[in-house]
Amino acid sequence: MKNYLLLFLISIPIILNSQMNVNIHEAENWGQYVVNKYFPKNIKYEVISIQTISNESQIQYYVCHVYPVGFVLVSGNKLLHPILGYSWESNFIYPLQQTSIALFINRVKKIEENNKTADIHPLWNNNLDKYLNNEYRSVDPLILTKWDQGIYYNQFCPKDPAGPDGRCVTGCVATALAQVINYFRWPNVGEGEYTDIDTTYGHLYVNYAEQNYFYNEMPLRATRENQELAKLMYTIGVACDMYYGPHGSGMYNHKAAYALRNFFRYDPTTEYLFRDETHLDWDSLLRDYLDQKIPLYYGGWSDTEYVSGHAFVIDGYQDTMVYHVNWGWGGAYDGYFNINNLTPGGSDFTYKHEVVINMRPNGQYPVYCNGTDTLKTLDGTIDDGSGPFYQYLPNTHCSWLIQPFDSIENIKLDFLKLDLPDPNDFINVYNGDSNSGILVATITGTDIPNTITVNGKSAFIEFISNDNEEGDGFLLSYSTTVHTFCTANITEIVADSGVITDGSGPYNYRNGNFCRWKLLPANAQQLVLTFNLLDIDSTDNLRIKNYDGSIDMEFKGNTLPPPILVSSFPVNIYFTSSATYSAQGFEIIFRSSLESINDYQYLVSIYPNPFSNAIFFDFVTDGLLKIYTSDGKLMFSNYYNRGSYLINTDEWASGIYFIHFNDNNNFFSKKIIKIYE
Q1: pTM of the prediction?
Q2: What is the mean pLDDT of the segment spanning 206-228?
Q3: Do residue 375 and residue 478 come from a single domain?
Q4: Contacts of 105 (CB under 8 A, 6+ apart)
Q5: How many domains would you assign to the chain?
Q6: pLDDT one-digit tens code per residue, 572-595
Q7: What sign does the CA torsion over 222, 202, 161, 585 have?
C-alpha cells in the first residue's frame, strides 16, 4: 500500500471510438448541473473554467473548476457515469502524483482489453432537467477533522531523516482509523499490549492499557505540534503492524478490524467486509451505516495482489450516486465521488473494495462530561460527551479550563454543532480560570454563534442543563493566538553589551522558527559571548558565525560552552527549530570587557527563580544592581552593601527580566522570570 491518493473517480477510460467521446460543452452542462443541484445554496457557485485531462491524445476526464472553491469531474467517455466526483471543500490541482496516474493507466489497459464493445451509459441519453428537480436522500459529512500523514501527525513515528520533519509518515490506514476513532471519541483508554516488529525500524512496543486518549485536546486540523493527536496516530500504526517508511507507510495484513477489537475496545463483531465476496447490495450496506451516523473505514486497490491501494473514510452521501470521501490528506480533494465508475458494459474493474463494519464503541459509552477538564494544548475540540448517537444528560454541570502553558494573547471558540433546545440549558464562557472571571458569552438554542474571542491567557467554559428537555448537545473547536518570540527579520545590534535570547522566557521556544541577529558593535573591538542558558533540542540548531569564517559554531543540547571571544564583525546568529519538539532556548550575554571571560557567578545568589511576589538577593560584595525588562528598559537601580535583601515584586508584570550587578571589578548578569501563582 502506498500513501498516494487513489481517486477511484479517476479510473481513466479508453476512448473506443469518437461516438464515445464527451465534448467540452457536454462536460460544462453536466458540471453546472451538479453545481445547481448538489452544491450549498447559501453561496453562489458557478463553473468558471474547464480543464481537459488527456492521455496519449485520448480524453480521460474534464475538470470543471468552480468559483469560489470546488470542482466537478466529468467523464470524458460515455461508457462511464457522467459524474465522477465533485467538491465545494477543496480545489482540484493537476497534475496529481505520477505514481497515482501510473496506477490509473494500468486500469485503462484492462478496460481496453475487456471492452471491445460496450453501451453508452444510459444517463448520457437523458434530459438533465428530468433529474434536476428530483428529490434525493443525503447524509452530510460526519467527519469534521481534516487530518494528514506528515508533519505534526507523525511526531512519534520512527525516525528517518528522509521523512517529513525527520520521521516516517503515519500511513493512510492510521490516518483514516484515527479520524473515525476521534469521531466517536472512544476509547478513553486502550487495552492490551503489542510489539510491531519492523524490519527497518526495529521493535515498536505500545502498552495500550497505559494509553489515555484526550480527544478534547485534539484539533480539527494540525497546524502546530499536538502530541495527543500524534500519540493516537502512532499507537494505531503499531497495532496494525504498519510497514513504516519516510514517503509512504502501509498495512498489508488487513489488521484494522483486529486492532479496533483488541486494542481500542470496539465491538467484538467489528470486521472486514469485501465487496468481491459478498452477495449484499453494496450501496445499500454503505448507506445503512451512514444513516445510523456511523462513518466507514474504507479501502480499495488498483490491482488484485494488494500491492497498491489507499485507505480513507466514507462519511456521507448525496442521492444514490456519490459518497463523501475524506481522503486523509488534510482536506485536499475531499468531496463526493462515484465509487462505482468502473462498470462499462456491465464489467467491474474497481478492484478489491473493502469496508470495516460494526465499528461501534464497546463499553460504557458515551463518556459524558463531568467535573472540570483542564486542557493544555494550543488547539482542540470540546463536546458535552453525548457523542453522535445520544443526547446530553439532564442536570449536567461540567466545565473545561483552556490554559496552555504558553504566552497566550487570546483564545478563539468556534461552534461546529449546537443543539440546546431548552433555554435553561446553556454554555457560559469566561475570561479567566474559573466562573468568577469576566463573562464573555452565554450560548443556548440551536443557532451557531459567530466566533467568540477571549482576550486573555485562559478561558473557562461551563455547561449547565436542567431536568426538562435535552438535545444533541454541542461541539466546538478552540484555537489560541500566541506571542511571536523571534523572527526571520534580522535584529541588528550595535551596543557593546547586552543580551540575545530566543525570547521565549519561561516557555519553550516556538516550533518552525527561523530567527536572525547581527552583532555589529559601534565601539568595541572585541566581544565576549557567554551563554547564560542553553537548552536546544537535538532536532534544532543554533549557529554563531562571523563574516570572515574565523568563528562558525553550532550548538545543541544543554551543556553550557565556554565563553567565545570575537574579534571580527559582523557576527551573525541563526536559530532554527523543527516543526515538533522544543526546549527552553538560549540566552547569550555579550560584553566588551575581557574580564567577563572569568566566572563571577558566585557574586550574587538569587532565589526563587522563577519568582512571584518577591525575590531574594544575597551579595558577597558591595555593588550596583540594575534590573532591565526583556526589551532593555531600565526599571530598577540601587546600590547594595554586602548582605541579603528582599525586593517586593507584586507590581511587576509577569515575564522576563535581566539583572546586572557590578562591583567595579566584576560584572554579573542573569535572567530572572516573574510568574503569577
Answers
A1: 0.82
A2: 98
A3: yes
A4: 12, 55
A5: 3
A6: 999 999 998 899 999 998 887 544
A7: positive
